[in-house]
Write a structure and sequence with these properties.
The protein is of the alpha/beta class and about 325 residues long. Helix content is about 45%, strand content about 15%. It is globular and about 60 Å long.
Length: about 325
């Protein structure tokens, strides 16, 4: 089975918007530079401060009617699936159907699972059940979920249903075999993270196998990648700044991972790495700018003006 990947190249970026003015500024920046999507991450408790992703994106939706908006990724097992179904259905209305619901399990900070009263070892099973549960509720019909081990209920009708038929597309994260199989069985797309182009290609193959075994008739499948990115005058300087930033963010030595997984170096270096990922099947890139936070806007401008023009043939592919 070949996954029906998009033919269009789409590029967005991740950001944090701590104030209404920041939302307006980020929105204006994305419009000026021609980015197509805006994403936010999610943690209840993390090594650095993080705001709720849906509330941030709702602020952007109020000031921008063009951008695709997405969570990259929302740690759905930390919340009850019924509550999530209501939140996301509401946001689908507020965004006028421009939302991609990226979900994942996290787990690298187990204390946030403890804080939410959720056993960290149940996170994969809860995500699987959660996806099934919210899709039932999004039908707008009276539904029951009595066999669910985590979210049982009887005769519940949730209205209004999302304005997007069937609900917003659900893209799952993860790179383990279990995560890839879940993606193939249940998801509308894959949002990868810390993988190489070779790993990405192999991941899509595993997803296709799982989709075929589940006898799914997919008309469209989103293939996305959240990628750490740093443009600089040399590869070595880009690596140094990216590694320092990511080591602080994740409270661990991230230099080996940055070297292996990130898009780093001169504009031509970065364009070649993006092309490698595109050849592996990525169609939607989400740039996570690394280095000093105050340089994020300049990094996005450099990518738009110095890297993206080198990707013209990919966009036309």
């Amino acid at each position: 089975m070949d996954l029906p990947l998009d033919t269009k190249l789409t590029i967005g970026f991740s950001a944090t918007m701590a104030t209404p003015q920041a939302s307006r500024d980020v929105s204006a920046l994305a419009d000026r530079l021609g980015y197509e999507s805006l994403w936010t991450g999610d943690h209840i408790a993390f090594a650095v401060p993080m705001l709720d992703p849906l509330l941030q994106l709702a602020q952007v939706a109020a000031v921008n009617s063009r951008l695709l908006l997405g969570t990259g990724v929302y740690l759905m097992p930390l919340r009850h699936a019924t509550t999530v179904a209501k939140l996301v259905a509401t946001f689908d209305h507020l965004s006028e159907g421009r939302f991609i619901f990226g979900v994942g399990v996290g787990g690298e900070f187990p204390n946030e699972y403890s804080a939410c009263g959720v056993p960290v070892k149940e996170r994969g099973a809860r995500l699987t059940e959660g996806i099934k549960t919210i899709r039932k509720l999004w039908t707008g019909q009276p539904v029951s979920n009595e066999d669910s081990p985590f979210y049982p209920f009887k005769d519940v009708q949730m209205l209004p249903r999302p304005i997007t038929p069937g609900g917003p597309p659900i893209w799952t994260g993860g790179r383990s075999k279990a995560a890839l199989n879940r993606c193939g069985r249940l998801a509308d797309g894959w949002m990868s993270y810390v993988v190489t182009p070779e790993m990405y290609r192999e991941g899509l193959q595993q997803i296709a196998i799982a989709a075929k075994e589940a006898k799914r008739d997919l008309k469209k499948f989103g293939s996305s990648h959240l990628v750490f990115m740093r443009i600089d005058d040399t590869y070595e300087r880009a690596l140094d700044l990216a590694a320092a930033h990511l080591t602080r963010r994740y409270a661990m030595d991230f230099r080996p991972a940055a070297k292996k997984y990130a898009v780093l170096g001169t504009p031509s270096d970065c364009a070649q790495r993006i092309a490698d990922f595109h050849a592996a099947g990525v169609r939607h890139f989400v740039l996570d700018c690394t280095g000093p936070l105050e340089e994020r806007d300049a990094q996005l401008e450099r990518f738009a003006k110095e890297v993206r023009p080198l990707l013209g043939q990919l966009a036309a592919a």
